[in-house]
Write a structure and sequence with these properties.
By secondary structure, this protein is an alpha+beta fold. It contains 14 helices and 18 strands. The strands form five sheets. The protein has a six-stranded antiparallel β-sheet with strand order 1-2-3-4-6-5. Strands 11-18-13-16 form a four-stranded antiparallel β-sheet. Strands 12-17-14-15 form a four-stranded antiparallel β-sheet, with no helix packed on it. α3 runs antiparallel to α5 and α10 crosses α11. The longest helix has 28 residues. The radius of gyration is 25 Å and the shape is globular.
């Protein structure tokens, strides 16, 4: 096969029961893509064919809708072509399946970080009314051979809460299904929370929490047995991680996390725990994300925009007395203070003291031409500083730049108001 539609085929990536996935090149967008191809003959195979078409149409219908950095984007779809195909973002790292083998387990901190990113992506999908229903390591792709970048794929089994569609029963992988799903009960986002908990358990320990010789046995385990904590199967897993996994896999809806936010928060706290903190030197993406979301500067940014900021910003932890900016030097970045205090001085005279959530050096971005720094900036206490290169921001999405502009405008108004108050009080 040389071409699929306008796409030039490079090589086969994989093959399933009803589809073949090809690596191809999009000459118009100048990017490599993954194309899932389903022969039309598959759709004519009786009930099996009807199911295959249903899953294909469900996934194709999400083209252009789930735009999130941790969800595989669907660029294009051709449901009436022969063969039918879906064009998706190409993710080179493969699935997380290999990392479920006991001899290939990932570091604990990496697993927690990956699951955190999945939880934020699934929260984004749920806010758009989409419930995945088929979460498993085979449907989570790794951005590369290293790092914690992940993307959720294969929304063919998804249901949408905003439509009156009838969910097809029996779809999904039994070992990862929630008690509610195996019993064909009405589902909400908490079924995905359970399934992601199972994925986390498997990535941590190298084995599934619910096992059996057949699907009936597995379903019995899901409904009736309590798996051992991950720490019983792998040394070094702290109690805080055990607690998160087991709560996500609670059989009752009342005992399980009731929201993705609650699940994400506990994952981030687990990552910040003393035990996992010993295994890392850099600020984790989960900590960065939660920090951004908690700062007043970013209060009007969407989750997707926060992930974008996280990608092009630079972070540092600075000791007291660290010089961050020097008067008279070129300005090619500005900073937002995430933690601590900084002082602004000119000719050794104190001009201002800033605290967490405030920005400085923003004229490097707001001025039409890059100028020089007008003052010195140094830390008064231990601080976490977010540096934003001006060129990186100028290349950011329109939505992200607009949110920065709104934040700068709000700060300008607040500063003018404060100045007026000071003048009137004199």
């Amino acid at each position: 096969m040389d071409k699929i539609g306008k796409y030039q085929v490079i090589k086969k990536l994989g093959e399933g029961a009803t589809s073949v996935v090809w690596l191809a090149h999009d000459p118009f967008a100048e990017r490599d893509v993954a194309i899932k191809v389903v022969a039309n003959s598959v759709f004519s195979e009786g009930e099996r064919g009807k199911l295959a078409r249903k899953l294909f149409v469900t996934e194709a219908s999400l083209a252009g809708k789930l735009n999130h950095p941790h969800i595989v984007q669907i660029y294009d779809a051709a449901a009436d072509a022969d063969p039918s195909y879906i064009v998706m973002e190409y993710v080179p790292g493969g699935t997380l399946e290999p990392y479920c083998a006991p001899d290939k387990l990932l570091p604990l901190a990496d697993v927690v970080e990956m699951i955190f990113k999945c939880s934020r992506a699934l929260d984004f999908a749920y806010r758009l009314g989409v419930i995945h229903r088929d979460l498993k390591p085979a449907n989570i792709l790794r951005g590369g051979s290293a790092g914690t970048d992940v993307k959720i794929s294969d929304f063919g089994a998804a249901i949408t809460t905003s439509s009156d569609q009838t969910a097809i029963s029996g779809i999904g992988s039994p070992a990862y299904m929630s008690p509610q799903q195996v019993q064909d009960w009405p589902l909400d986002h908490r079924t995905d929370i359970f399934s992601l908990g199972v994925v986390m358990y498997q990535l941590l320990t190298g084995q599934l929490p619910f096992q059996g010789s057949n699907n009936v046995s597995i379903v019995y385990q899901i409904l009736n047995t309590r798996p051992p904590p991950p720490s019983a199967l792998r040394a070094g897993i702290p109690a805080v991680v055990d607690a998160v996994v087991l709560k996500a896999m609670q059989k009752s809806l009342e005992g399980r996390y009731d929201s993705w936010d609650a699940f994400s928060f506990d994952l981030a706290e687990a990552f910040r725990s003393e035990h996992l903190a010993e295994t890392r030197t850099q600020i984790a993406d989960s900590e960065k994300f939660n920090t951004l979301r908690g700062l007043s500067f970013f209060r009007n940014f969407s989750d997707v925009q926060l992930w974008e900021v996280l990608r092009f910003s630079e972070w540092q932890r600075a000791k007291p007395g660290t010089q961050l900016m020097h008067e008279g030097t070129p300005g090619d970045n500005f900073c937002i203070l995430a933690k601590g205090e900084v002082k602004i001085t000119k000719n050794a005279k104190l001009l201002n003291i800033l605290s967490a959530g405030e920005c400085f050096g923003e004229m490097a971005y707001l001025a039409e031409e890059a100028g020089v720094r007008g003052a010195d900036v140094s830390t008064l206490s231990e601080a976490t500083v977010i540096s934003v290169p001006t060129e990186a921001l100028r290349r950011a999405s329109d939505a992200c730049r607009h949110s920065f502009d709104r934040a700068f405008l709000r700060i300008l108004v607040e500063r003018l108001s404060l100045a007026n108050t000071r003048l009137t009080s004199v």
